Structure to design on (470 residues):
Protein backbone atom coordinates (compact mmCIF):
# COMPACT_ATOMS: atom_id res chain seq x y z
CA UNK A 1 0.00 0.00 0.00
CA UNK A 2 1.08 3.55 -0.68
CA UNK A 3 2.31 5.46 2.33
CA UNK A 4 -0.49 7.93 3.15
CA UNK A 5 1.99 10.44 4.57
CA UNK A 6 3.95 10.74 1.31
CA UNK A 7 3.75 14.25 -0.11
CA UNK A 8 4.27 14.42 -3.85
CA UNK A 9 5.65 17.55 -5.50
CA UNK A 10 3.34 18.28 -8.43
CA UNK A 11 3.62 22.06 -8.78
CA UNK A 12 6.92 21.92 -10.67
CA UNK A 13 5.51 19.07 -12.78
CA UNK A 14 2.59 21.32 -13.76
CA UNK A 15 5.02 24.03 -14.87
CA UNK A 16 6.97 21.57 -17.02
CA UNK A 17 3.79 20.26 -18.65
CA UNK A 18 2.41 23.76 -19.36
CA UNK A 19 5.78 24.77 -20.88
CA UNK A 20 5.65 21.65 -23.03
CA UNK A 21 2.16 22.48 -24.30
CA UNK A 22 3.25 26.03 -25.18
CA UNK A 23 6.37 24.83 -27.03
CA UNK A 24 4.42 22.13 -28.89
CA UNK A 25 2.30 24.86 -30.48
CA UNK A 26 5.17 27.32 -31.01
CA UNK A 27 7.60 24.75 -32.41
CA UNK A 28 5.09 23.16 -34.77
CA UNK A 29 3.64 26.50 -35.89
CA UNK A 30 7.16 27.51 -36.96
CA UNK A 31 7.26 24.22 -38.87
CA UNK A 32 4.10 25.20 -40.75
CA UNK A 33 5.69 28.56 -41.63
CA UNK A 34 8.73 26.70 -43.01
CA UNK A 35 6.51 24.37 -45.06
CA UNK A 36 4.75 27.44 -46.46
CA UNK A 37 8.10 29.04 -47.35
CA UNK A 38 9.11 25.96 -49.34
CA UNK A 39 6.02 26.33 -51.52
CA UNK A 40 5.82 30.14 -51.50
CA UNK A 41 9.44 31.41 -51.25
CA UNK A 42 8.16 34.99 -51.16
CA UNK A 43 7.17 34.29 -47.53
CA UNK A 44 10.86 34.64 -46.62
CA UNK A 45 10.08 38.39 -46.98
CA UNK A 46 13.71 38.99 -48.08
CA UNK A 47 14.56 39.03 -44.37
CA UNK A 48 17.78 37.58 -43.04
CA UNK A 49 15.98 36.80 -39.77
CA UNK A 50 12.82 35.18 -41.17
CA UNK A 51 14.30 32.96 -43.87
CA UNK A 52 14.27 29.15 -43.89
CA UNK A 53 17.90 28.66 -42.80
CA UNK A 54 17.40 30.73 -39.64
CA UNK A 55 13.97 29.36 -38.68
CA UNK A 56 14.54 25.67 -39.36
CA UNK A 57 16.84 25.05 -36.35
CA UNK A 58 14.40 27.07 -34.23
CA UNK A 59 11.64 24.67 -35.31
CA UNK A 60 13.64 21.53 -34.50
CA UNK A 61 14.97 22.93 -31.22
CA UNK A 62 11.52 24.16 -30.19
CA UNK A 63 9.95 20.77 -30.79
CA UNK A 64 12.77 18.60 -29.41
CA UNK A 65 14.02 20.71 -26.48
CA UNK A 66 10.85 22.68 -25.79
CA UNK A 67 7.95 20.28 -26.34
CA UNK A 68 9.64 16.91 -25.76
CA UNK A 69 12.27 17.62 -23.09
CA UNK A 70 9.86 19.66 -20.96
CA UNK A 71 7.23 16.91 -20.90
CA UNK A 72 9.88 14.22 -20.31
CA UNK A 73 11.38 16.14 -17.39
CA UNK A 74 7.97 16.74 -15.84
CA UNK A 75 6.70 13.20 -16.41
CA UNK A 76 9.94 11.58 -15.21
CA UNK A 77 9.89 13.52 -11.94
CA UNK A 78 6.22 12.65 -11.40
CA UNK A 79 6.67 8.96 -12.28
CA UNK A 80 9.82 8.60 -10.14
CA UNK A 81 7.85 9.93 -7.16
CA UNK A 82 4.73 7.84 -7.71
CA UNK A 83 6.45 4.54 -8.52
CA UNK A 84 8.96 5.04 -5.71
CA UNK A 85 6.28 6.24 -3.26
CA UNK A 86 8.50 9.12 -2.21
CA UNK A 87 8.83 12.87 -2.60
CA UNK A 88 11.33 14.70 -4.79
CA UNK A 89 14.99 14.57 -3.81
CA UNK A 90 15.13 18.37 -3.56
CA UNK A 91 12.34 20.82 -4.46
CA UNK A 92 14.66 23.79 -4.86
CA UNK A 93 16.78 21.78 -7.28
CA UNK A 94 13.63 20.96 -9.27
CA UNK A 95 12.86 24.66 -9.72
CA UNK A 96 16.48 25.34 -10.72
CA UNK A 97 16.15 22.68 -13.41
CA UNK A 98 12.84 24.12 -14.65
CA UNK A 99 13.94 27.75 -14.87
CA UNK A 100 17.40 26.80 -16.15
CA UNK A 101 15.85 24.85 -19.02
CA UNK A 102 13.46 27.69 -19.88
CA UNK A 103 16.49 30.02 -19.99
CA UNK A 104 18.14 27.64 -22.49
CA UNK A 105 15.01 27.78 -24.66
CA UNK A 106 14.81 31.57 -24.44
CA UNK A 107 18.45 31.90 -25.53
CA UNK A 108 17.75 29.54 -28.44
CA UNK A 109 14.75 31.64 -29.42
CA UNK A 110 16.95 34.76 -29.48
CA UNK A 111 20.21 33.42 -30.93
CA UNK A 112 19.12 31.12 -33.76
CA UNK A 113 17.15 33.71 -35.80
CA UNK A 114 20.14 36.06 -35.38
CA UNK A 115 22.32 33.49 -37.14
CA UNK A 116 24.42 32.27 -34.20
CA UNK A 117 24.80 28.58 -35.02
CA UNK A 118 27.34 25.76 -35.03
CA UNK A 119 25.56 24.38 -38.16
CA UNK A 120 25.42 20.91 -36.55
CA UNK A 121 21.96 19.36 -36.84
CA UNK A 122 20.05 19.26 -33.52
CA UNK A 123 23.17 20.80 -31.94
CA UNK A 124 23.09 24.28 -33.45
CA UNK A 125 23.34 26.24 -30.20
CA UNK A 126 26.65 27.98 -29.56
CA UNK A 127 29.13 27.13 -26.82
CA UNK A 128 27.91 29.40 -23.96
CA UNK A 129 24.39 27.95 -24.27
CA UNK A 130 25.87 24.44 -24.49
CA UNK A 131 27.61 25.00 -21.16
CA UNK A 132 24.29 26.06 -19.63
CA UNK A 133 22.62 22.93 -21.08
CA UNK A 134 25.30 20.72 -19.48
CA UNK A 135 24.85 22.44 -16.11
CA UNK A 136 21.05 22.08 -16.15
CA UNK A 137 21.31 18.47 -17.35
CA UNK A 138 23.67 17.55 -14.50
CA UNK A 139 21.26 19.13 -12.00
CA UNK A 140 18.38 17.21 -13.60
CA UNK A 141 20.34 13.94 -13.35
CA UNK A 142 21.09 14.58 -9.66
CA UNK A 143 17.40 15.34 -9.06
CA UNK A 144 16.10 12.26 -10.91
CA UNK A 145 18.58 9.72 -9.56
CA UNK A 146 18.38 11.27 -6.09
CA UNK A 147 14.61 10.76 -6.16
CA UNK A 148 15.09 7.13 -7.26
CA UNK A 149 17.52 6.65 -4.38
CA UNK A 150 14.85 7.92 -1.94
CA UNK A 151 12.26 5.37 -3.12
CA UNK A 152 10.44 3.35 -0.45
CA UNK A 153 10.16 0.23 -2.61
CA UNK A 154 12.97 -2.05 -3.75
CA UNK A 155 11.74 -2.34 -7.31
CA UNK A 156 12.60 0.27 -9.95
CA UNK A 157 9.65 0.47 -12.34
CA UNK A 158 10.63 -0.05 -16.00
CA UNK A 159 9.64 3.49 -17.05
CA UNK A 160 12.45 4.77 -14.83
CA UNK A 161 14.92 2.51 -16.64
CA UNK A 162 14.11 4.29 -19.90
CA UNK A 163 14.33 7.72 -18.25
CA UNK A 164 17.72 6.78 -16.77
CA UNK A 165 18.98 5.68 -20.20
CA UNK A 166 17.77 8.87 -21.86
CA UNK A 167 19.48 11.05 -19.22
CA UNK A 168 22.82 9.18 -19.29
CA UNK A 169 23.14 8.62 -23.05
CA UNK A 170 22.09 12.16 -24.00
CA UNK A 171 24.62 13.57 -21.52
CA UNK A 172 27.44 11.47 -22.98
CA UNK A 173 26.80 12.06 -26.67
CA UNK A 174 25.90 15.74 -26.27
CA UNK A 175 29.17 16.55 -24.52
CA UNK A 176 31.33 14.63 -27.01
CA UNK A 177 29.62 16.03 -30.13
CA UNK A 178 29.71 19.61 -28.85
CA UNK A 179 33.41 19.68 -27.94
CA UNK A 180 34.55 22.91 -29.56
CA UNK A 181 37.16 25.65 -29.46
CA UNK A 182 35.58 29.10 -28.84
CA UNK A 183 36.68 31.78 -31.31
CA UNK A 184 34.53 34.53 -29.81
CA UNK A 185 31.61 34.94 -27.42
CA UNK A 186 29.13 33.46 -29.92
CA UNK A 187 31.32 31.51 -32.34
CA UNK A 188 33.17 28.24 -31.95
CA UNK A 189 34.69 25.50 -34.11
CA UNK A 190 34.33 21.76 -33.54
CA UNK A 191 37.43 19.90 -32.36
CA UNK A 192 36.57 17.25 -34.97
CA UNK A 193 36.98 17.68 -38.72
CA UNK A 194 35.93 16.00 -41.95
CA UNK A 195 34.75 12.40 -41.75
CA UNK A 196 35.40 12.28 -37.99
CA UNK A 197 33.10 15.24 -37.47
CA UNK A 198 30.39 13.57 -39.57
CA UNK A 199 30.65 10.30 -37.61
CA UNK A 200 30.48 12.04 -34.23
CA UNK A 201 27.65 14.33 -35.40
CA UNK A 202 25.46 11.40 -36.48
CA UNK A 203 26.38 9.43 -33.40
CA UNK A 204 24.72 12.40 -31.65
CA UNK A 205 22.05 13.23 -34.22
CA UNK A 206 20.55 9.77 -34.54
CA UNK A 207 20.73 9.05 -30.82
CA UNK A 208 19.11 12.37 -29.98
CA UNK A 209 16.18 10.83 -31.86
CA UNK A 210 16.82 7.45 -30.24
CA UNK A 211 16.99 8.53 -26.63
CA UNK A 212 14.99 11.78 -26.49
CA UNK A 213 12.24 11.02 -29.00
CA UNK A 214 12.22 7.24 -28.53
CA UNK A 215 13.54 5.95 -25.18
CA UNK A 216 12.23 8.90 -23.16
CA UNK A 217 8.79 8.76 -24.75
CA UNK A 218 8.66 4.97 -24.33
CA UNK A 219 9.40 5.41 -20.62
CA UNK A 220 6.57 7.92 -20.32
CA UNK A 221 4.18 5.62 -22.19
CA UNK A 222 5.04 2.55 -20.10
CA UNK A 223 3.53 4.41 -17.15
CA UNK A 224 0.61 6.23 -18.78
CA UNK A 225 -0.65 3.52 -21.17
CA UNK A 226 -1.45 1.05 -18.33
CA UNK A 227 -3.05 3.96 -16.42
CA UNK A 228 -5.38 4.99 -19.23
CA UNK A 229 -6.11 1.35 -20.18
CA UNK A 230 -6.76 0.46 -16.53
CA UNK A 231 -4.75 -2.72 -17.09
CA UNK A 232 -1.19 -3.81 -16.16
CA UNK A 233 1.61 -3.87 -18.74
CA UNK A 234 0.88 -6.86 -20.99
CA UNK A 235 4.36 -8.32 -20.46
CA UNK A 236 6.72 -6.76 -17.97
CA UNK A 237 9.47 -9.13 -19.10
CA UNK A 238 9.07 -7.95 -22.71
CA UNK A 239 9.38 -4.33 -21.56
CA UNK A 240 12.77 -5.14 -20.04
CA UNK A 241 13.85 -6.92 -23.25
CA UNK A 242 12.66 -3.83 -25.14
CA UNK A 243 14.87 -1.67 -22.91
CA UNK A 244 18.05 -3.70 -23.34
CA UNK A 245 17.46 -4.11 -27.07
CA UNK A 246 17.27 -0.35 -27.59
CA UNK A 247 20.20 0.44 -25.31
CA UNK A 248 22.33 -2.32 -26.82
CA UNK A 249 21.80 -1.55 -30.52
CA UNK A 250 20.48 1.97 -31.02
CA UNK A 251 23.72 3.80 -30.23
CA UNK A 252 25.46 2.00 -33.11
CA UNK A 253 22.94 2.88 -35.83
CA UNK A 254 23.79 6.55 -36.48
CA UNK A 255 26.23 5.92 -39.32
CA UNK A 256 23.36 4.80 -41.58
CA UNK A 257 23.11 8.56 -42.26
CA UNK A 258 26.56 8.38 -43.90
CA UNK A 259 26.04 5.65 -46.52
CA UNK A 260 27.71 6.53 -49.85
CA UNK A 261 29.90 9.07 -48.04
CA UNK A 262 33.65 9.25 -47.42
CA UNK A 263 33.52 7.47 -44.05
CA UNK A 264 34.95 3.92 -44.07
CA UNK A 265 32.71 1.20 -45.54
CA UNK A 266 32.91 -0.90 -42.36
CA UNK A 267 31.58 2.04 -40.32
CA UNK A 268 28.70 2.40 -42.78
CA UNK A 269 28.02 -1.35 -42.54
CA UNK A 270 27.81 -1.23 -38.74
CA UNK A 271 25.06 1.38 -39.06
CA UNK A 272 23.17 -0.76 -41.59
CA UNK A 273 23.38 -3.99 -39.57
CA UNK A 274 22.46 -2.37 -36.27
CA UNK A 275 19.51 -0.58 -37.91
CA UNK A 276 18.16 -3.91 -39.16
CA UNK A 277 18.61 -5.55 -35.75
CA UNK A 278 16.61 -2.71 -34.17
CA UNK A 279 13.46 -4.00 -35.88
CA UNK A 280 13.18 -6.73 -33.24
CA UNK A 281 13.19 -4.75 -29.96
CA UNK A 282 11.23 -1.88 -31.53
CA UNK A 283 8.35 -4.02 -32.73
CA UNK A 284 8.52 -6.16 -29.58
CA UNK A 285 7.99 -3.02 -27.48
CA UNK A 286 5.24 -1.78 -29.79
CA UNK A 287 3.48 -5.16 -29.52
CA UNK A 288 3.73 -4.94 -25.73
CA UNK A 289 2.13 -1.47 -25.58
CA UNK A 290 -0.57 -2.37 -28.13
CA UNK A 291 -1.53 -5.51 -26.23
CA UNK A 292 -1.71 -3.49 -23.00
CA UNK A 293 -4.33 -1.26 -24.63
CA UNK A 294 -6.14 -4.21 -26.26
CA UNK A 295 -6.66 -5.81 -22.85
CA UNK A 296 -9.47 -3.26 -22.43
CA UNK A 297 -11.11 -3.42 -25.87
CA UNK A 298 -14.42 -1.96 -24.72
CA UNK A 299 -12.81 1.22 -23.43
CA UNK A 300 -10.54 1.40 -26.50
CA UNK A 301 -13.59 1.65 -28.81
CA UNK A 302 -14.67 5.03 -27.44
CA UNK A 303 -11.77 6.47 -25.43
CA UNK A 304 -9.90 8.89 -27.69
CA UNK A 305 -6.96 9.16 -25.28
CA UNK A 306 -6.43 5.41 -25.68
CA UNK A 307 -6.88 5.80 -29.44
CA UNK A 308 -4.20 8.52 -29.53
CA UNK A 309 -1.83 6.14 -27.73
CA UNK A 310 -2.77 3.29 -30.08
CA UNK A 311 -2.17 5.52 -33.11
CA UNK A 312 1.21 6.54 -31.70
CA UNK A 313 2.16 2.85 -31.44
CA UNK A 314 1.16 2.23 -35.07
CA UNK A 315 3.27 5.18 -36.23
CA UNK A 316 6.13 3.90 -34.07
CA UNK A 317 5.87 0.59 -35.97
CA UNK A 318 5.87 2.46 -39.28
CA UNK A 319 8.83 4.66 -38.41
CA UNK A 320 10.90 1.78 -37.00
CA UNK A 321 10.18 -0.27 -40.12
CA UNK A 322 10.99 2.60 -42.45
CA UNK A 323 14.25 3.57 -40.70
CA UNK A 324 15.98 0.18 -41.18
CA UNK A 325 14.53 -0.02 -44.72
CA UNK A 326 16.11 3.33 -45.62
CA UNK A 327 19.41 2.11 -44.15
CA UNK A 328 19.63 -0.62 -46.85
CA UNK A 329 21.99 0.61 -49.56
CA UNK A 330 19.57 0.37 -52.50
CA UNK A 331 16.80 2.25 -50.72
CA UNK A 332 19.31 4.76 -49.37
CA UNK A 333 20.62 5.42 -52.88
CA UNK A 334 17.07 6.30 -53.97
CA UNK A 335 15.90 8.15 -50.87
CA UNK A 336 18.90 10.02 -49.46
CA UNK A 337 18.49 13.82 -49.50
CA UNK A 338 14.95 13.51 -50.91
CA UNK A 339 11.60 14.43 -49.36
CA UNK A 340 11.09 10.76 -48.43
CA UNK A 341 13.52 11.24 -45.53
CA UNK A 342 11.51 14.24 -44.31
CA UNK A 343 8.33 12.15 -44.56
CA UNK A 344 9.97 9.37 -42.53
CA UNK A 345 11.17 11.75 -39.84
CA UNK A 346 7.77 13.38 -39.47
CA UNK A 347 5.78 10.15 -39.47
CA UNK A 348 7.83 9.44 -36.34
CA UNK A 349 7.89 13.00 -34.98
CA UNK A 350 4.21 13.81 -35.53
CA UNK A 351 2.79 10.28 -35.52
CA UNK A 352 4.76 8.67 -32.70
CA UNK A 353 6.09 11.51 -30.54
CA UNK A 354 3.28 14.00 -31.29
CA UNK A 355 0.43 11.54 -30.72
CA UNK A 356 2.09 10.22 -27.54
CA UNK A 357 2.56 13.75 -26.18
CA UNK A 358 -1.05 14.66 -27.02
CA UNK A 359 -2.36 11.53 -25.29
CA UNK A 360 -0.25 12.29 -22.20
CA UNK A 361 -1.53 15.90 -22.12
CA UNK A 362 -5.16 14.77 -22.33
CA UNK A 363 -4.73 12.16 -19.58
CA UNK A 364 -2.19 13.86 -17.33
CA UNK A 365 -3.32 17.50 -17.18
CA UNK A 366 -6.83 16.78 -15.78
CA UNK A 367 -5.20 14.50 -13.17
CA UNK A 368 -2.64 17.13 -12.16
CA UNK A 369 -5.35 19.77 -11.74
CA UNK A 370 -7.77 17.45 -9.93
CA UNK A 371 -10.44 17.06 -12.64
CA UNK A 372 -12.33 13.85 -13.31
CA UNK A 373 -12.96 14.50 -17.01
CA UNK A 374 -12.11 16.70 -19.97
CA UNK A 375 -14.14 19.80 -20.78
CA UNK A 376 -15.24 18.44 -24.18
CA UNK A 377 -15.12 14.92 -25.62
CA UNK A 378 -16.32 16.33 -28.95
CA UNK A 379 -13.24 18.55 -29.22
CA UNK A 380 -10.86 15.65 -28.53
CA UNK A 381 -12.68 13.66 -31.23
CA UNK A 382 -12.20 16.53 -33.70
CA UNK A 383 -8.55 16.76 -32.66
CA UNK A 384 -8.09 13.03 -33.22
CA UNK A 385 -9.26 13.18 -36.82
CA UNK A 386 -7.48 16.46 -37.62
CA UNK A 387 -4.21 15.01 -36.28
CA UNK A 388 -4.62 11.81 -38.29
CA UNK A 389 -5.55 13.61 -41.48
CA UNK A 390 -2.59 15.95 -40.98
CA UNK A 391 0.02 13.22 -40.44
CA UNK A 392 -1.33 11.03 -43.26
CA UNK A 393 -1.43 13.87 -45.81
CA UNK A 394 2.02 15.08 -44.73
CA UNK A 395 3.71 11.66 -44.84
CA UNK A 396 2.06 10.32 -48.02
CA UNK A 397 2.74 13.56 -49.92
CA UNK A 398 6.44 13.39 -49.04
CA UNK A 399 6.70 9.67 -49.81
CA UNK A 400 5.38 10.35 -53.32
CA UNK A 401 7.53 13.46 -53.72
CA UNK A 402 10.65 11.74 -52.41
CA UNK A 403 10.38 8.54 -54.44
CA UNK A 404 9.63 10.51 -57.62
CA UNK A 405 12.44 12.95 -56.87
CA UNK A 406 14.90 10.12 -56.24
CA UNK A 407 14.08 8.36 -59.50
CA UNK A 408 14.35 11.63 -61.44
CA UNK A 409 17.78 12.34 -59.97
CA UNK A 410 19.02 8.85 -60.87
CA UNK A 411 17.50 8.61 -64.37
CA UNK A 412 20.14 8.59 -67.13
CA UNK A 413 19.97 8.46 -70.90
CA UNK A 414 21.91 5.85 -72.91
CA UNK A 415 24.95 8.12 -73.14
CA UNK A 416 24.97 8.68 -69.37
CA UNK A 417 23.45 12.15 -69.29
CA UNK A 418 20.89 13.01 -66.63
CA UNK A 419 17.38 12.83 -68.05
CA UNK A 420 15.90 15.45 -65.72
CA UNK A 421 17.28 18.76 -64.55
CA UNK A 422 17.17 19.79 -60.91
CA UNK A 423 14.49 22.37 -61.75
CA UNK A 424 12.29 19.68 -63.33
CA UNK A 425 12.55 17.61 -60.16
CA UNK A 426 11.55 20.68 -58.14
CA UNK A 427 8.57 21.30 -60.42
CA UNK A 428 7.47 17.68 -59.97
CA UNK A 429 7.42 17.87 -56.18
CA UNK A 430 5.90 21.36 -55.88
CA UNK A 431 2.24 20.23 -55.50
CA UNK A 432 3.30 17.65 -52.93
CA UNK A 433 5.06 20.37 -50.95
CA UNK A 434 1.74 22.22 -50.85
CA UNK A 435 0.09 19.09 -49.41
CA UNK A 436 2.92 18.93 -46.86
CA UNK A 437 2.03 22.46 -45.75
CA UNK A 438 -1.69 21.60 -45.67
CA UNK A 439 -1.14 18.46 -43.59
CA UNK A 440 1.06 20.31 -41.10
CA UNK A 441 -1.53 23.09 -40.81
CA UNK A 442 -4.24 20.52 -39.98
CA UNK A 443 -2.02 19.05 -37.27
CA UNK A 444 -1.40 22.46 -35.70
CA UNK A 445 -5.12 23.30 -35.91
CA UNK A 446 -5.75 20.17 -33.85
CA UNK A 447 -3.19 21.36 -31.29
CA UNK A 448 -5.06 24.67 -30.93
CA UNK A 449 -8.29 22.74 -30.23
CA UNK A 450 -6.35 20.75 -27.60
CA UNK A 451 -5.06 23.91 -25.91
CA UNK A 452 -8.59 25.34 -25.73
CA UNK A 453 -10.02 22.06 -24.42
CA UNK A 454 -7.31 21.70 -21.76
CA UNK A 455 -7.61 25.35 -20.71
CA UNK A 456 -11.35 24.96 -20.21
CA UNK A 457 -10.73 21.69 -18.36
CA UNK A 458 -8.32 23.33 -15.92
CA UNK A 459 -10.83 26.14 -15.31
CA UNK A 460 -13.64 23.69 -14.45
CA UNK A 461 -14.71 23.48 -10.76
CA UNK A 462 -12.27 21.37 -8.79
CA UNK A 463 -13.51 17.98 -7.62
CA UNK A 464 -12.30 15.92 -4.70
CA UNK A 465 -10.72 12.80 -6.15
CA UNK A 466 -9.80 9.55 -4.48
CA UNK A 467 -6.10 9.01 -3.97
CA UNK A 468 -4.70 7.22 -7.01
CA UNK A 469 -2.29 4.36 -6.47
CA UNK A 470 1.09 4.63 -8.13
Amino acid sequence: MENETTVYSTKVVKYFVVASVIWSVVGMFIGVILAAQLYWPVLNFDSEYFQFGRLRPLHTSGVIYGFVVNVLMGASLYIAQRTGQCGLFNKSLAWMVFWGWQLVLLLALLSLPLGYTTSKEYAELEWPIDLLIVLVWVLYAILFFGTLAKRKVNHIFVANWFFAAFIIVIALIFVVNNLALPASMMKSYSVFAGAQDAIVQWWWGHNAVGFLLTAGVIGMNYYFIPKVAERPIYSYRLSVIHFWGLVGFYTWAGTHHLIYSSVPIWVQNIGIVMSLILWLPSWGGAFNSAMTLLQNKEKLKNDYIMLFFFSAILYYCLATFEGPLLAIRWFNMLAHNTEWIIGHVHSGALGWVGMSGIAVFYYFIPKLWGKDKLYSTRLIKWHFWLAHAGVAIYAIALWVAGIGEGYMWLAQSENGELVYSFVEAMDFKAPWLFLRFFGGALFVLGLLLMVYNLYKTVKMPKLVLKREAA
